[in-house]
Design goal:
alpha/beta, eight-stranded parallel barrel, TIM Barrel, globular
Length: about 325
C-alpha cells in the first residue's frame, strides 16, 4: 500500500519531511536559464528550465527525504510546456524512489471528480483498449467543499489503484478561518470534514495502522492540529505552513502520534530558495545545490530533535 511505502521511507531516512517543488521562474538561478535564453518558443524554454532545476533539487535531496510535493499551479502557469515539465518531474522523482504528492487541490462532483481522479491517480483507456497512466502521482490533495459526492470518487480510485489523497481539513493560510472555522451545530466546519476523513480512513489502513486517506492540516494552528489528531488517529497529515509561513518545530509536533508517524511536514521556499535572502539569481550551481542540501538536512535534524524530546523512546525510527 502506498501509505506503507511513504512510512517506510520516513523510517529508513529518519525524515518525516516532504520538499515542495514550486518553481518560481523569478527565483530560479540564472545558471538554469542561460542554456535556453535563445530559444524561439519562450514557454518551451521555461519548461526546460523548470525540469533542469527540479532535477537538480531531486538529485540533491532524494537520499534525505521520502517524498516531493510539486504544486501543479506553478506548472499549469506555462501551459503545455509547464505540464510537460510536471510530467517529467513526476517520472524522474519516482525513478529516484521518491513518493510524489501532487498539490492540485482537485474537486468536482460525480463523473467530473472521477475524471480528475483517473487522470491524476488512476488510468484511462486508449483507442486500442489499453490502460495507461496520464500523470501517475502517488497522492493528490483534494478540496472537500462540494461534499461527499466530490470526495468518494477519489477514495474509490485510491483503493483501485493503490494511491492516496490528502483532504483539505484545516489549511495554513491566514484567511482559512473565514469558512473552515465557522460554527455549525456547535462545531467548527473543519471538524465535519475531519469526520468524513476519519470514516474513510478507518476502513482502509495499511500494515502500520495508517490510511492513505489523509488530511491537510496547517502548521500555523497547533491547538487545532492537536484536536484534529485525536479526531483522525489513522490518517496521515500533510502539514504545510512550516518555516516561511510561520510554523515552527514545536507547532508541528501536535500533528504526530507518539510513534513519530502520522505526519509529513512540507517546506518549499525554505529549501529550494534558501540560497539567498534576497534571491540573488547569479548564484553558482554548486552554491545553489549546497544551499538546498544544507537546508534540508537542517530541517530534518530540527524536526527529529523535537520528536525525540517529545516522544523519547516511543519513536519508530
Amino acid at each position: 500500500m502506498i501509505i506503507d511505502r511513504l512510512i517506510e521511507g520516513i523510517i529508513s531516512k529518519k525524515s518525516p519531511i516532504v520538499v515542495g517543488l514550486d518553481p518560481n521562474i523569478e527565483y530560479i538561478p540564472d545558471i538554469y536559464k542561460c542554456p535556453y535564453a535563445d530559444m524561439n518558443d519562450g514557454l518551451e524554454a521555461i519548461g526546460n528550465v523548470i525540469f533542469d532545476f527540479n532535477k537538480d533539487v531531486i538529485d540533491c535531496i532524494y537520499n534525505y527525504v521520502p517524498a516531493v510535493k510539486p504544486q501543479i499551479a506553478y506548472y499549469e502557469l506555462y501551459g503545455m510546456s509547464g505540464l510537460q515539465a510536471f510530467y517529467k518531474t513526476v517520472k524522474y522523482a519516482k525513478e529516484k524512489g521518491l513518493v510524489v504528492i501532487e498539490d492540485g487541490k482537485r474537486n468536482d462532483i460525480s463523473e467530473t471528480a472521477t475524471a480528475y481522479a483517473k487522470g491524476h491517480l488512476g488510468t484511462v483507456t486508449d483507442l486500442n483498449g489499453l490502460k495507461i497512466k496520464p500523470f501517475d502521482v502517488d497522492f493528490l490533495t483534494v478540496n472537500p467543499y462540494l461534499g461527499s459526492d466530490g470526495l468518494t470518487p477519489f477514495v474509490e480510485i485510491c483503493k483501485e489503484h493503490d494511491k492516496g489523497i490528502f483532504v483539505l481539513v484545516k489549511t495554513s493560510n491566514k484567511s482559512s478561518g473565514e469558512f473552515q472555522d465557522k460554527i455549525c451545530n456547535g462545531r467548527p466546519l473543519y471538524e465535519f470534514v475531519a469526520d468524513y476523513v476519519n470514516q474513510q480512513a478507518d476502513s482502509y489502513v495499511g500494515k502500520y495502522g495508517y490510511s492513505p486517506v489523509g488530511a491537510v492540516v496547517g502548521a500555523t494552528y497547533p491547538q487545532i492540529s492537536q484536536s484534529l489528531r485525536s479526531l483522525m488517529p489513522k490518517s496521515f497529515f500533510l502539514v504545510p505552513g512550516f518555516g516561511a509561513q510561520g510554523g515552527n518545530p514545536q507547532d508541528v509536533m501536535e500533528c504526530f502520534n507518539s510513534d513519530g508517524l502520522g505526519a509529513i511536514i512540507n517546506s518549499s521556499r525554505g529549501i529550494i530558495y534558501s540560497y539567498s535572502d534576497k534571491y540573488d539569481v547569479s548564484v553558482s550551481r554548486d552554491e545553489y545545490i549546497n544551499s538546498v542540501r544544507v537546508s534540508v538536512l537542517d530541517m530534518k535534524e530540527t524536526i527529529l530533535d523535537e520528536l525525540k524530546k517529545k516522544y523519547k523512546n516511543e519513536l519508530m525510527y
